[in-house]
């Protein structure tokens, strides 16, 4: 059984390493290294929502939240678990009373379709935002639900 939970205390054992393993499974080159993950886990503004199966991390959502908005930093689900609505379940933990922002590679058509389904709209593009390979980012926003 897959469990989705907000890890406010960030107490899951070896969480940074488990997050890194999920990223390595999903991306050819992980967008974050272990040090970046550990630093973000220590940030009091960062929130992590975890998808666990038998205490093993199979996916996660990382976002930062302020008084009036939130920004999705990462969302990843291991390839073997994709297509099972896990990302949708993770997104259910985003605040509904705030604008939500995110960036996505313009070539990531599956993610773009998912974000559009989740009511995100394109608001801007950032030229050469990503590296390895260099690629533009699409900036997206979802209005609050209230």
Please tell me about this protein's structure.
It is a single chain. With 146 residues, this protein is α+β, with helices and mostly antiparallel strands. The protein has one domain: Aminopeptidase (3-Layer(aba) Sandwich), CATH 3.40.630.30. It contains four helices and seven strands, in the order βααβββαβαββ. It has a seven-stranded mixed β-sheet with strand order 1-2-3-4-5-7-6, with helices on both faces. A hairpin with a 3-residue loop joins β3 and β4. α1 packs across α2 (34-42). It is globular. It starts with a strand and ends with a strand.
Short key terms for the protein model shown above:
146 residues; alpha+beta; Aminopeptidase; 7-stranded mixed sheet; 4 helices; 7 strands; Acyl_CoA_acyltransferase; [Ribosomal protein bS18]-alanine N-acetyltransferase; AcTrfase_RimI/Ard1; transferase
The residue-averaged pLDDT reads 92
* Number of separate helices: 4
Label the CATH architecture: 3-Layer(aba) Sandwich
What structural class is derived from the secondary structure elements? alpha+beta
CATH homologous superfamily - what is it? Gcn5-related N-acetyltransferase (GNAT)
Count of discrete domains: 1
Low-confidence stretches: none
């Amino acid at each position: 059984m897959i469990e989705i939970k907000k890890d406010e205390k960030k107490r899951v054992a070896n969480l940074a390493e488990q997050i890194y393993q999920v990223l390595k499974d999903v991306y050819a080159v992980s967008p974050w290294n272990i040090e970046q993950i550990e630093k973000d886990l220590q940030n009091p503004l960062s929130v992590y929502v975890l998808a666990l199966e038998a205490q093993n991390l199979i996916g996660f959502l990382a976002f930062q939240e302020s008084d009036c908005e939130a920004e999705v930093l990462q969302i990843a689900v291991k390839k073997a678990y994709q297509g099972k609505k896990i990302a949708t379940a993770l997104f259910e933990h985003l605040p509904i009373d705030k604008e939500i922002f995110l960036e996505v590679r313009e070539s990531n058509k599956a993610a773009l379709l998912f974000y559009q389904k989740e009511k995100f709209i394109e608001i801007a593009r950032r030229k050469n935002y990503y590296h390895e390979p260099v690629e533009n980012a699409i900036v997206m926003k979802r209005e609050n639900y209230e």
